[in-house]
Amino acid sequence: MIDAIAWKFQIGAQWVQLPEKYGNWRGVYNRLRMWSADGTWERVFTALVAQADADEELNWVVSVDSTIVRAHQHAAGARKKGPRPTSRTTTPSAGPVAD
């Protein structure tokens, strides 16, 4: 089951493309959803991290290359319907005129 889930996320394929050797894709998908909902994956991850830390095999170095992280122009607040109209000048109302 874990191999099937790992295969799906490593390859990036759709669930229906899961090889037959892993069984029915719906069963694998449902098991993944159940384990995610009941916290099984979180407990497994926590235990693995604790074991790796105890064995001094854990290295917390993280590298992020911002040159490959791009946001769409609309994510930065750009208008979707062209440039903003310029401010209109305020014209006085047609009230009484001072003599």
TrEMBL record:
Low complexity bias: start-end ranges: 84-93
Listed name of the protein: Transposase
Native source organism of the sequence: Streptomyces olivochromogenes
A Pfam family this chain is assigned to: DUF4096
Cited InterPro entries: IS402-like_dom, Transposase_6_like
Residue ranges of domain Insertion element IS402-like in the record: 1-45
Biased composition (Basic residues): 73-83
Region Disordered, annotated ranges: 73-99
